[in-house]
Design brief:
Radius of gyration of chain A: 30 Å
Number of helices of chain A: 30
Largest interface: A-B, 77 and 77 residues
Oligomer: homodimer
Structural class of chain A: mainly alpha
CATH topology of the largest domain in chain A: Clc chloride channel
Number of strands of chain A: 7
Strand content of chain A: under 5%
Chain lengths: 655, 655
């Protein structure tokens, strides 16, 4: 049959239909036809092209392994996705602004336009993502961390989730700065889904020769995700190091950098092609004076800023955890959320939009600026002091955002104060929305690197700030402030933003649990060990093997010395057992298991005194799928990732 | 006696002498005196100060753990050391230059001054380092990597090595650019020695409560070392990630950044204090135009540069390995090196200095420039094209180095060509010198980030270049070039610079071995397992225990079910056995071991089918000191770091 299917591709559609019919009618006849080599048009040209493609393929694979092409593809694809998303969101935001400006003069219509547009988009995002794939709501980063720690979560890396998350995220971000949500977290989730898909292609192309695991591909995808989001390769790699696991394999370092550079280069080149930027450079370029950027004593001020950001981050994290828990425990809201997610999103979005309406309170918090404009104004080198004293400077400024920051009659500092006071609570409220959205960017805009670092317990926001601005003159003060704010935020085992979500969502992520409750690191596996279901003994006969094959669905079975001693000898696969049965059915003399099958020795055994943390570490670093537990030489249990997940879930209940 | 010793500190020198005499004469009398609370001057003030110190201590420890103060001290100390070294070297280099200038007009005297000064310094460095601590010669980085992988190397972290390496390195670097050696590698070694010393202090202060291991302190020390060397915190941390091990623990990430920021901040503040720089900023600041730093198609040129650097790095690495092997295998030179190291150093230094003498060939390779000036001229934004056409520009330039690069009658390109052609071979020759010296900086000066990255198989030189110059406009092209040069250098399993040294010096560093010969990663421990010396059985009596305690010096002994079954039950310590013996000597009824002592279960058992790589990974990541090997339930061997070292050495012989 193979030949017939090959010939399909070269035929026109009508002819194909004909052959398919023929195939359905008479298969016997078709095989005869296929053996006669069907006629193909342009035979020599086709064979030349095929030969050429093969040669190129061989040359490319001799240059680098297939995995490197996957990494490059990952970087380019995520960058392309990021750029298209930005373009679409920009157009939708401009449409809203245009409509709002057209209605100038009629406050009621303007109010409706201002509030209903984001309300509709948030409702769309919620209903779309929940109807296609409910797992697509939220940031997705805590789930990705859980998957990278080794635990499998269903549907989080599927293509339907990719589709739902992409469309949902575009809708959310098009709602603009009234809803004040970001792109980073979901985008890392998206890039991980692309990575998982590329990994499937890679695995099917390589077969058993594959040299990389899915985990490695996902770490690379995380780095590429951040890099393509901002065009910032270095902070992408650092982010993947510090957020994604507890041990970073240096083997992944070069692939991460490679994919991140591919991603950021593509992202920036696309900006150049679309005439957004003149050349490949920082996305939010600053022009601080580089001669004497600051005097040494100013470092103390930066340190104080770090302390302040750390303190505010504690308030923010506490409020965030409180509101998430409130939404889940309050009877009315949780029932409302369970049935009417879309209505809840629409209500909250309407509320947020009403508060930020420019003709009421919005003018005090510069609400007409988009996320991008807010970031631009944050990183602008114009001194705020000058603007607050000089109104003509504001009018003459090439950047329109200064007029927003300094509305007639009020100083810049007044607006900034209101912004800082009000936005924090609006942001906390927006975090409860059940739609695909990121929380890093708003946090970054609100309090810059030191605050974002403190909220996420990371240092990569400091590098992100450096790469976004393209200036590294302030590297030492930024790092100092971020370190200090981190120290404050991490004191007394407060969970980070991601850890908090993991804990509240009860995700089986052990590092989060241990950070929140360090005593758990000494819990032994003794109480959790599940006895092994089916055990074979070395002298097992045909009936015993037959019984075990029928009663169990495992693919691998442990073999012990005798059922009494339970001394573990090794493992044996289902296929081996089936061969054993077949060979013994034909012969009269029944041989024992040991004589016929080679028992695969077990490389590693654990005792019941090992801690959950140690077992988790061994399984995730050595990429073991199954570990046997013995006590005083006797086999007493088995731990797979399924059991590990159960263990972590039981531990989570103990907090 | 304790009270007497405490009181010493508060007494004047004469009084102390008196008490010591008294102490020697009559100890009995002194104990009586000590119990009577000896008179101390300023009793109230002293107790106030002691209370104050205690309060400060408590407050500081409540703020952060002791380890964080150690990290800060590590950063500050290494930065201070780095700065003092730079200052001394600068003075010695200026002295040489001054003497050379004074002798203007007499070529013979100038030649003697030019050649004998570095010859003498190299001879001094060699003889000093070899007479105090022979391990202080060379870079030290490959040895540090080996120590960080878990294997102990004697004398590499001792204080005498610190002293010898410090003085030796200062002498080597004062020999200047004629010898063309650098600071980085030995300085990382120095910072590791400081780290090890601080760790000893920390461990003695904390006792059993210590939360950090020596390995963690050394990783932090490596980051702080690089950071203090250049004032570059981020590349310091990245360097410690990619060079130091195969798995990076994310737990070390914050300490690394903290120490690195402390180090670089101190280093830069010291520069400000000494009026070298106006404020805290990049060490080699550049002023490339930041508006449009480069056009997008120029990235292809950067990529080609990366390819070129990768190709040259292969030549360099090959020559480097060849000459190191030649020096070790050539009968005459190896015998000469074994007995007359100082003479060898002096000869090579004299040869290098003769070749670079400005009045002969030196003028073609800009030999009068120091390492720092070479780096400055490399990173200067003046276009070379302009200089080659415009001689007045050279004379008017504020930087004197352009006159060196463009000697009368020759263009800049001519000098640069000679520099590139000749310096490579001089550098290869200089690498054979048996003195404390680094090889990173010369490589960085020779071929910048892409070349240095290719030679060391790392990407952190790219970041180092960004941090040294303080401009991140070129981040994408630099990373692209470095990635491409790395890809070329890593092709066909060529060892990196550090791996090459590890292999030639036969250091027990498994990752280097596996990178050079990937088949070794599947070697099983079967052939290397050493049988356990002393084994106790659960019903062991007094005589058996007595015999084992006398015949073995181990601190921990495995306990098996019976000597026939050899089923491992757990371990028991020497102290427990001694208690067991004592309690049984007094009683008539002899109890068995099992009744009296609690057997500590073994958390982890390996089979003989585990590979050396897996065992190494488990031992280094889980920080296990001793792993038992069982086969089919029977104890058959033990692996400690000593056995691991032997295994790796045996593997190295197989290459």
């Amino acid at each position: 049959m193979q030949h017939v299917y090959v010939s399909y591709t070269s035929l026109g559609e009508n002819e194909q239909h004909g052959i398919r019919h023929a195939g359905e009618k008479n298969t016997q006849e078709k095989i005869i036809i296929s053996n006669e080599r069907p006629w193909k048009p342009w035979q020599p040209a086709r064979s030349q092209i095929t030969g050429c493609v093969r040669r190129v393929q061989t040359a490319m694979l001799s240059l680098a392994g297939l995995e490197w092409y996957c990494y490059a593809a990952l970087g380019v694809l995520t960058a392309f996705m990021s750029f298209c998303m930005d373009l679409t969101i920009g157009k939708l935001l401009r449409a809203h602004q245009w409509l709002y400006d057209c209605l100038e003069g009629n406050i009621l219509l303007q109010f409706l336009c201002w509030t209903l547009y984001p309300t509709f988009l948030c409702a769309l995002s919620t209903s779309f993502s929940h109807s296609i794939c409910p797992q697509s709501a939220g940031s997705g980063l805590p789930e990705i961390r859980t998957i990278l720690s080794g635990v499998q979560l269903a549907d989080y890396l599927s293509l339907s989730n990719l589709f739902a998350k992409l469309i949902g995220l575009i809708s959310t971000l098009s709602a603009g700065s009234t809803v004040f949500l970001g792109k980073v977290g979901p985008f890392v989730h998206l890039s991980n889904m692309v990575g998982a898909y590329l990994y499937r292609l890679y695995a099917s192309a390589c077969g058993e020769k594959q040299r990389r695991t899915q985990g490695e591909m996902l770490v690379v995808a995380s780095a590429a995700g951040i890099a393509s989001c901002f065009g910032a390769p270095i902070s992408g790699v650092l982010f993947s190091i510090e957020v994604m696991g507890s041990h970073y394999s240096v083997r992944d370092y070069c692939p991460c950098f490679f994919a991140a550079v591919c991603g950021s280069l593509t992202y920036r080149l696309l900006s150049v092609c679309s005439r957004e930027q003149e050349t490949v450079q920082a996305v939010f370029k600053t022009t601080f004076p580089s001669e004497i950027p600051y005097q040494p004593p100013e470092i103390l001020i930066f340190a104080f800023l770090g302390l302040l950001c750390g303190a505010i981050s504690c308030v923010y994290l506490y409020s965030h955890r409180w509101i998430l828990r409130f939404v889940r425990t309050n009877k009315f809201i949780s029932r409302f959320m369970a049935t009417e997610k879309t209505l809840y999103s629409a209500t909250v979005a309407f509320l947020l939009a009403s508060v930020t309406f420019p003709h009421t309170g919005g003018s005090f918090i510069a609400s007409q600026l988009s996320m991008k404009q807010l970031l631009f104004s944050l990183l602008d080198s114009t001194q705020w002091n000058l603007i607050s004293h000089n109104t003509t400077l504001v009018q003459e400024s090439p950047h329109s955002f200064w007029q927003e920051w300094s509305p007639p009659g009020y100083s810049v500092y007044h607006t900034l104060g209101c912004f800082i006071l009000i936005k924090l609570w609006l942001l906390v409220l927006a975090c409860t929305l059940p739609l695909p959205a990121g929380y890093f960017m708003p946090v970054f805009i609100y309090g810059a690197a030191a605050f974002a670092g403190a909220v996420t317990h990371t240092l990569s926001p400091a590098l992100c700030a450096l790469e976004l601005t393209g200036q590294s003159t302030h590297v030492v003060p930024i790092l100092t402030a971020t370190l200090i704010s981190n120290a404050l935020a991490r004191s007394r085992h407060q969970p980070s933003f991601y850890d908090g979500i993991s804990l509240i969502k009860k995700l089986p992520h052990l590092p989060s649990l241990i950070r929140a409750c360090p005593e758990l690191s000494s819990v032994q596996i003794r109480q959790f060990v599940v006895p092994v279901g089916a055990v074979l003994q070395r002298a097992e006969g045909v009936t015993g093997v037959q019984h075990i094959l029928n009663s169990s669905k495992e693919n691998e079975f442990p073999v012990v010395d005798t059922h009494d001693s339970l001394t573990l000898l090794g493992t044996i696969t289902r296929a081996q057992l089936q061969t054993f049965l077949l060979s013994n059915q034909s012969e009269d003399l029944c041989k024992s298991l040991e004589d016929e099958c080679s028992i695969q020795p077990v490389k590693l055994q654990l005792s019941t005194d090992a801690t959950v943390k140690q077992v988790h570490c061994i399984m995730s670093i050595l990429r073991e799928q199954c570990v046997f537990v013995t006590e005083k030489g006797k086999l007493c249990g088995v731990i797979t990732w399924k059991e590990m997940k159960n263990m972590i879930e039981k531990l989570a209940k103990e907090i």
